[in-house]
Amino acid sequence: MVQETRSTCPYCGVGCGVIIESDGAQITGVRGDPDHPANFGRLCTKGSTLHLTATAPVTRQARLLQPLQRLVRGETPTAVSWDAALDNAAGKFAQVIQDHGPDAVGFYISGQLLTEDYYVFNKLAKGLVGTNNVDTNSRLCMSSAVAGYKQTLGADAPPACYDDLKHADCLFIVGSNTAWAHPILFRRIEDAKAANPALKIIVADPRRTDTVEIADLFLPIQPGTDVMLFHGMLHLMLWEGWTDAKYIAEHTNGFDALKATVRECTPDKVAQVCGIPKDDLLQAARLFATSPATLSLYCQGLNQSSSGTAKNAALINLHLATGQIGKPGAGPFSLTGQPNAMGGREVGGLANLLSAHRDLANPEHRAEVAALWGVPSVPEKPGKTAVEMFQAAADGEIRALWIACTNPAQSMPDQATVRRALERAEFVVVQEAFSTTATCAFADLLLPATTWGEKDGSVTNSERRISRVRPAIAAPGETRHDWSIATDFARRLEQRLGRAGTLFPYDTAESVWNEHRETTRGRDLDITGLSYAMLDDLGPQQWPLKEGESSGRVRLYEDGVFPTPDGRARFVDTPYKPVAEAREARYPFSLNTGRLRDQWHGMSRTGTVGRLFGHVAEPMVQMNPQDMARRQIGEGDLVHLTSKRGSILLPARASTEIGLSQAFVAMHWGEEYLSGCSSTGTRLAGINALTTPAYCPTSKQPELKHTAVKILKAELPWSLLTMAWLPTDEVLAVHRALQPLMAMFPFATCVPFSGSTKDAAGTERSGLLFRAAAHDAPADALLEQIEALLGLQSADTLRYADRRRGQRRSVRLVRRADQSAGLEAFLLAGDTSAEAWIATLLREELPAQSYGRLLLSPGARAPLAVQSRGKPVCTCFNVTDLAIQGELGRCSGTPDERLAALQGTLKCGTNCGSCIPELKRMVRSTPVESLATL
C-alpha cells in the first residue's frame, strides 16, 4: 500500500517541501508539496528525481549500511558492531585528548545535516571535549554572508523573504546563477516578472549564465571586482542625490567614513576596474536607488572570495544608504547554498559561533552557553575553520578528525593539502550515508548514517523558515541518525574522560530540538513559541517566533531598529581589494567554479542517476572562443589547466558565456569522475586540485570563485572511448572498479548515462562512458581489463587490432525483442574519430546490424542513416535541442507564443521548469523572419 509522507528536499537552500511516496521499505516516488510556502508544489530536476536516488539498485549499492573498520590504511575495511566501533572511536579520541589536549581533535560537519544533528556535534566539541575545532562545509558557502550581516545589521538574519519578489520593483542579482543554483526560486522570479512587466532586473556576474536571460541590464564585471562596483554605484547615488538622508540619520552610523572611501570610486575608475560601460553603471545605480522597492539576491559569487565579507557589507551599504530595507520588496537577501546551512548557523555550528547566534569571542555569551549546558566553561581559544583545520591536520597539530555528511577529499580547495591531512591524521572517522565518496577511502572508521527519506528533524531555509524533515521508510541496515551517532559517541567519551555523563540525555530528535529552542530565548532568532507540534499542525514557520506568538515574522527591521548596542545599523568602510591571486604572465586566466543545473555537490546522490548527466554529460573547461582561437585550441581538444598547486587535463569547450581571459569548470567533478596521473606519478584529484586556499580574513571563506591558471593545449595523440549498457544493479560496481584504472592514464573520465527506453523492470537503462588519453597506447592487459568490466570479453564480441599503430576496436551486438541487432558496448582505441555516430547508435539504441564492418574500421565515416536526436535540454521529458529547433521551424508569433507552442507540443519546460531559461534563449535566437528557412 502506497503511503505519503511530507518532508523537505535535501538539496539547495530554497527548502522545497516534498511528498514522498513509499511502499513498505521502498521509496517509490516524489512530488512537490503544494501546501509548502517555499515551492507550492514545484520541484527542479534534482528534486523531482529524488526517488530515483533512494531506491534504484545503483543507489542501494552506494549506501554504507554497517560500521566498517580499517586496521591498516589502504586495505578493505571489515564490518564491526556499533559497540565496537564507537568504543574504538571513544578510546582513540580520549587518548589523543589526554596526550595532546582537546585542540588536537577536530570535527568537520555539513550544511546537509539537520539542525538536531548540528546541535549535538556543537555541544560535543565545545561542551564536552573543550575545543572550538568544529566547523562545517558551510564555511565554504555562507560564512561571508554571516559576517556581512553581523558587521552591518548586527545579527546573522536575512531580513527579506521569498514573497518579497512579488513586491519588488527592482531586483539586483549579483554573484548568483539563480536559474541553476536555486531553480524553484527562479521560477518565482519568472512569475514576478510576468505579473509585473515593469519589474527591472539587473544581473552582475562575470559569466553570462542562464540567469542573465531574464535581465533588463547585465553587468559582466571582472572577477572579484564586486566591491568596486558597489562603491561606484554609491558614488553616483551620492552625486545624483539618490540616497535617503533621513533614513541614514535616524537608523545608521558610520556613513561619513564610507563616503570618503567611495569618493575615489569615480565612474571612470569603476568602468576600468570592473570592465563595464559607465552608462550601465549609472543605469544600475539609478534603478537600485530610485525604484520604490529594491531586493538584492546574492550567493557564492560574493561569498567565495578573499574579500567575501567586504563584498557582502558593501552591498548591504547600498540598501542602508537608500533605505531599501525593512519594507515589502526590499532588502539584502543572501541565498543559502545548502539545505540547512542556516540551521547550522542557528546552533553555532561554526568554529567562531555559539548557540543562537552568540559570538565565541564574547565572554558573556560563553558564560550564557556554559550555564545553559551545565558545564564550567566554554573554551575561549578560537577554533580552526575549514581550511585551517585541514592545514593543522597536515602539519600534525590536529591528530584525530571526525567528518560527518561531507566530502572534503572532493570539495575542499587545495586537495594536495587536504589529502596530506587525511593521510597524516592518526585517526579519521567518516560518518556517511554513501560509501562511494572520495573521503571514505581515507577513513579508519566508517559509520553508516541515515539519509533523505529516512531522517527525522528540522531544517531552516534561506528565508528563515523552519520545516520538518520526516522519515518515509525505516532506517535501512544498521544505519543510525546523525544526532544519535554523535550522542552515543559523546556518552562513551564522557566515561573515558571521567565526566559526570549528563550532557547528552537525548532519546529523540525532538528532545534535541527542544533544548536548542531554549537556547534561543531572548535572542534575535527566538523560537520559544515554536514546537514540533506547531510545525506538524500549521506547517513551516519563520523565525523569530516568540513564546505566545502564533506565527513568525515575515521580514525584519520594519521598525528601523537593529540588533546592535544602539539599535542602529552600521555602514562598513570596505576598501576595494583585488583577488588574492592576480592574473600574470605565467597564469593569465581566471578560473571560476560553480554549479551545474542538474547536479549536486560531489554527486554522491545525483551521480547515481544517469538521466541527470544528460544536460552536461562530461567534465569540461569552458573558454571564450577568442581565447581558444588565439591558442589554436579546437573544440574538444584536451588542455592542461594548471595553477600553482597542480595541473589537470580537460577537454575545452567554446562558450560565449565566458569572458576573455576567463575559464569555468563545474565544482562537481572530483576524482570519481575526472582523474588521471601526472608525469611524476601523482594522482590528480578533480577540479579542486587547482583551487586556492586563500580566504577572507574575516569570514575565513576560501576564494573558490577565482584561481589564477594557465591553459595550454595538450599533446596526447592516443585516445580511448568506450561505452556500454550495463545491468542497472552493476553500474556502480563497474564504475568503482574502473576508478583505479583511470589513474593509469594522464587523462581519464568515467560518467554514467541513461537511455530513453526502459528495461524489463520498468527502470531506465543505465550505462557507463569511459574516456582516456595518453602519449602512447598502453599495454594490452590494461585495455583487456577495461573491456572485461564493460562486457567486451564475451564470445560474441567482434574485434579489430593493429598493435603497431596502437589501434584497437571491440563491439558487441545483441538481438533485441524486435529481432533487430543493437549495439550493446564498444571500445575505440587509437582512432576515436567515429565517436559521434557510433555513440549515437548505442545511446539512442538504433538498429546496428548493417554496420558491422564499419564499426571495426578506423576512420569510417558516419552512415547517413545514423542521425543523432541531439543534446538533452529538458531532462524531465528527454527533449533535445534538435527536436526543439525542429519545432521552432513550425512556430510563429511572439517569443512567448512560440515558447507556449513548444511547451504544448513537446512538453519541455512544463514539469520542473529548469530548462525554461534555455528554451527562451533558443526561441530568441531564432528570429521570426528566419523560420521559413529552417
Set down the secondary structure blueprint.
Layout: E1 2-8, E2 17-23, E3 26-32, H1 45-48, H2 50-55, H3 57-62, E4 68-69, E5 78-79, H4 82-100, E6 105-109, H5 115-129, E7 134-136, H6 143-153, E8 170-174, H7 178-181, H8 183-195, E9 200-204, E10 217-219, H9 226-240, H10 245-251, E11 252-253, H11 255-262, H12 267-274, H13 278-290, E12 294-298, H14 300-303, H15 308-322, E13 331-334, H16 341-346, E14 353-354, E15 358-359, H17 363-373, H18 386-394, E16 400-404, H19 408-411, H20 415-424, E17 427-432, E18 445-448, E19 457-460, E20 465-469, H21 482-496, H22 509-519, H23 532-538, E21 541-542, E22 569-570, E23 589-594, E24 621-623, H24 625-630, E25 638-642, E26 647-654, E27 662-666, E28 674-675, E29 707-713, E30 718-726, H25 731-742, E31 747-758, E32 764-774, H26 780-789, E33 797-802, E34 807-815, E35 821-829, H27 835-843, H28 852-855, E36 872-874, E37 879-880, H29 881-888, H30 895-906, H31 916-924
Parallel strand pairs: 6-7, 6-16, 8-9, 8-12, 9-10, 11-22, 12-13, 16-17, 17-18, 23-27, 24-26
Antiparallel strand pairs: 1-2, 2-3, 4-5, 4-18, 14-15, 19-20, 20-21, 23-29, 24-27, 25-26, 25-29, 28-31, 30-32, 30-35, 31-32, 33-34, 34-35, 36-37
